[in-house]
Amino acid sequence: MSILPNDLNWNHLRAFLTTAEAGSLSAAACQLGQTQPTLSRQVAALEAELNMLLFERIGKQLELTQAGLDLLEHLRPMGAAAAQVALTASGQSQSIAGLVRITASDVFSVHRMPDVLRLLRDEAPDLKVEIVAANDIRDLMRREADIAIRHVEPDQPDLIARKLSEIRGHFYASRHYLDQRGYPQAPADMSDHDFIGMGDPPRMIELLAPMGINLSEQNFPYGSESGLVAWELAKQGFGILPMVDSLGDCTPDMVRVLPDANPFMIPVWLVTHRELHSSRRIRLVFDTLAEFLTDN
């Protein structure tokens, strides 16, 4: 029977090659992430395609026939070539280098990203990372950044998004401010206080209303698009500001307002474009961020 190259199934050839090199179907199945019966069927199919016996079972062991040994000699270069193609497709080289741009809020960029950079420096010293500290949503599709840390789920279908966790937040104010203006005892008391706007005050008013905190724009005499500036204003005693507990609780002289109230939960989304599947450096940074944000 004449066998043409187009008649051969690479999955069947790979099943044979992996089994021959692993020494058993069970070990080969583990390497390929398949079940042993599936792998056995692929090897049997190859034997049928070639019309030759490739393995002999001796007791519980598989032994290559002479035909199997001859085929293995030809397939090993093919396997090496396939591995090289996969390596090239997944990263172009064995060393992880190049630039990755990460966009995150300015607060996260200052207080959390240094810890991430230390992990990346140890893992891939040739990698370059640019942090785009911005509170607006940068467009990954236009490559303004490679990876984004967001608090809302993106709606672009071509992006890969993974919700990693939810972080806790409360309201905070400086001890000096609360000593001067009083300590709110209930949500309704908050309407007598100054708040620091961060972004869009009307949106903040809308979000706080279901919590029983009824504010107007008069409650926002100061504000900033920058989370860092807003936090500094709160530290300087200009009003109340919502902030994540991990920062608020460790800042000297900052006090939780309504400490017994339920925390508000802030979702954390890690987002990238589909190049994640083909860039080893983006994959490394994405996975490092995912592990860090899940554990911290």
From TrEMBL:
Residue span(s) of domain HTH lysR-type: 8-65
InterPro entries for this protein: LysR-type_TF_proteobact-type, LysR_HTH_N, LysR_subst-bd, WH-like_DNA-bd_sf, WH_DNA-bd_sf
PROSITE patterns with a match to the protein in the record: HTH_LYSR
Keywords for this protein: DNA-binding, Transcription, Transcription regulation
Pfam families reported for this sequence: HTH_1, LysR_substrate
Keyword Glycosyltransferase: no
Metal-binding among keywords: no
Top-rank lineage group of the source organism: Bacteria
UniProt similarity note: Belongs to the LysR transcriptional regulatory family.
PANTHER family noted in UniProt: HTH-TYPE TRANSCRIPTIONAL REGULATOR, TRANSCRIPTIONAL REGULATORY PROTEIN
Name by which UniProt lists this protein: LysR family transcriptional regulator
Organism: Parasedimentitalea maritima
Lineage: Bacteria, Pseudomonadati, Pseudomonadota, Alphaproteobacteria, Rhodobacterales
